[in-house]
Amino acid sequence: MVQEVLVKEALAKERVEAGKELLQRLSKTDFKVAAALWLWRLERPKWKLVVASSMVNKKGLLETYHFIDNVYGKPRPIPELDVMDIYPMETTEPLIKALRSQARK
Questions:
Q1: Residue 103: predicted pLDDT
Q2: CA distance 79 to 45
Q3: Quick one: DSSP state of residue 20?
Q4: Which end of the chain is more exposed for a tag (fewer CB within 10 A), N or C?
Q5: 45-63 pLDDT, tens digit each
Q6: CA 80, CA 17: separation in Å to the nearest integer?
Q7: What was the pLDDT predicted at 2?
Q8: Residue 40 belongs to domain spanning
Q9: Under a CB-based contact definition with an 8 Å cutoff, are residues 87 and 48 in contact?
Q10: Is there a domain that residue 18 lies in?
Q11: pTM for the structure as a whole
């Protein structure tokens, strides 16, 4: 069943830049980002920064989230990005697999 959704809250440029800053911080660690994207979540109408990584597959969601939270907070938290808006995801999720497949084409 196809559902049309009207997203009333535009993704602000500042939030996009904040997401880039987090990804740059993560790239300076051993954390491997397989995919990253901003996703509008219907369950809680809000933009979430999805970060897919094999760390989630191997160590679980909680340990991965703690790792990201630690990187997020050092040297200082990123003002335009609430840590609660970061959503770690397994690389085996259908959405991530589909996006990575399309990106290769």
A1: 79
A2: 21
A3: H
A4: N
A5: 889 999 999 999 999 999 9
A6: 8
A7: 55
A8: 30-104
A9: yes
A10: no
A11: 0.86
pLDDT at 1: 56
Q: How many domains, the chain?
A: 1
Coil, strand or helix: which one is 53? strand
Residue 89 sits in a domain of what CATH number?
Answer: 3.30.300
What is the DSSP secondary-structure string of 69-85?
HHHHHSSS--TT--GGG
What is the predicted pLDDT for the residue at 4? 60
Tokens of 96: 């991530």
How far apart, in whole angstroms, are the C-alpha atoms of residue 18 and residue 97? 25
**What pLDDT does residue 84 have?**
93
Please indicate, yes or no, if residue 10 is contained in any of the structural domains: no
d(CA 88, CA 65): 7
Residue 96 maps to a domain: yes
Q: Look up tokens 């970060």; give the residue.
A: 51
Cite the DSSP H helix spans in the chain: 13-27, 54-59, 61-73, 94-104
52 lies in some domain: yes
In the block, tokens 């996009």 appear at 16
| Coil, helix or strand at residue 49 | strand
CA 70 to chain centroid? 15
